Amino acid sequence: MSASSKLPPFDPADPLGIDDLLEPEDLAVRDTVRAWAADRVLPYVAEWYENGELPGIGELARELGSIGALGMSLTGYGCAGASAVQYGLACLELEAADSGIRSLVSVQGSLAMYAIHRFGSEEQKNEWLPRMAAGEVIGCFGLTEPDHGSDPASMRTHAKRDGGGDWVLNGRKMWITNGSVAGVAVVWAQTENGIRGFVVPTGTPGFSAPEIKHKWSLRASVTSELVLDDVRLPADAVLPEATGLRGPLSCLSHARYGIVWGAMGAARSSFEAAVDYAKSREQFGRPIGGFQLTQAKLADMAVELHKGILLAHHLGRRMDAGRLRPEQVSFGKLNNVREAIEICRTARTILGANGISLEYPVMRHATNLESVLTYEGTVEMHQLVLGKALTGLDAFR
Questions:
Q1: Which terminus of the chain is more exposed, N or C, with fewer CB under 10 A?
Q2: Are 370 and 315 in contact (CB under 8 A)?
Q3: What distance lies between CA 391 and its chain's CA centroid?
């Protein structure tokens, strides 16, 4: 670099210059989702969270469909066909608003739609995916059970053939996002030929989805139990290309990738709130942001935040190149959610008592991330995935 060359100015919002890695199309996706969230979520989400509800979810889903956010990394059938990085940027912006909104989108696109897109028949794809991409039909994903979370192979929900024709499903699923508002559920069940996935219209007799109340996390999100009592489905309701745990676990890996990005959105929102507060809150005659201990906290938060975004970007490029392994997704979820929670907790200390108020986003993000920490793979499960990959020894059992 010549002596006359000028370095770009330091950007406190992008201290590593990560935006330089993004294409104009990437930035356009990010800006579109950020603008939508600023208009349709941020003015209302504190009230939604306080009331423990997500009103107008059908309208929100249709709006998300109109901007291409539902199943956005899938191709065909009305889906946007966006890159993995663009999908990740969308998840970051959605979770910067609230984890519940990102969960709505993740379950719709990366679990329910992804399962049908990857493992479904052409008839199933054509029937459901265009309407789900448009937000006209909301989907849910029934894997976790009341007694079997981290060990889905032991699920008790079962499906039996009735005289070689119809399937009859019985069982329970628990902690199912979107369950009470879904028009279609992808349900995984034991069969005589192993675990299979089923496309279940939620209006089918015997299917019900009571909403789970009294949550202190993900309060601006619909969470339900799925109850299947002799739910009769036609023979072609089964996903033909999925047998065994490979099917649901591949869906989870796709959804976990979105969490790697999304967690950094919650962290960014809390970090920005802490920076703004530190510059305006005065103690001992000057802003607290001018004290060494506060600056040390902000510096450490910025380092972990932007390291996490850089990690998410790297994994996104690997996914776009077809080179992303499930172990690498575990690496990202383990690190980014854990660091995001620590950023929120540190932000809370900077805001002091105001940090627990819904006038600021920090405590809302912190409590949401407590759910994100354990859903779609607990810390321990991701540690064991990485431990097995590093040593070649299986410590799960």
A1: C
A2: no
A3: 29
Per-residue pLDDT of the chain (397 residues; tens, 9 = 90+): 555 578 999 999 999 999 999 999 999 999 999 999 999 999 999 999 999 999 999 999 999 999 999 999 999 999 999 999 999 999 999 999 999 999 999 999 999 999 999 999 999 999 999 999 999 999 999 999 898 878 888 899 999 999 878 999 999 999 999 999 999 999 999 999 899 999 999 999 999 999 999 999 999 999 999 999 999 999 999 999 999 888 999 999 999 999 999 999 999 999 999 999 999 999 999 999 999 999 999 999 999 999 999 999 999 999 999 999 999 999 999 999 999 999 999 999 999 999 999 999 999 999 999 999 998 888 999 999 999 999 999 998 7
Identify whether the C-beta of residue 137 lies closer than 8 Å to the C-beta of residue 178. Answer: no
Instruction: Report which of 364, 297, 373 is spatially closest to residue 340, judged by C-alpha positions.
Output: 373
Active-site hit among 25, 122, 376, 380: 376
Q: Measured over all CA atoms, what is the biggest interatomic distance in the chain, rounded to whole angstroms?
A: 83
**376 belongs to the catalytic site:** yes
Taking the CB of residue 123, how many other CB atoms lie within 10 A of it?
11
**How far from the centroid of its chain's Cα atoms is residue 141's Cα?**
13
Q: Which residue has the tokens 């990005």?
A: 261
Rounded distance between C-alpha atoms, residue 245 and residue 247, angstroms: 5
Between the two ends of the chain, the Cα-to-Cα distance in Å is 56
Report the run of H or E that residue 59 belongs to, with start and end: helix 57-66
- DSSP secondary structure of 73-116: TS-STT-----HHHHHHHHHHHHHH-HHHHHHHHIIIIIIIHHH
Domains of the chain, with CATH numbers? 18-133 (1.10.540.10), 139-243 (2.40.110.10), 247-391 (1.20.140.10)
**What angle do the packed helices 99-106 and 84-97 form, to 10 degrees?**
140
User: What ranges in 134-285 are assigned the alpha helix state H?
Assistant: 246-280
In this structure, what token pair is assigned to residue 309?
Answer: 């975004």
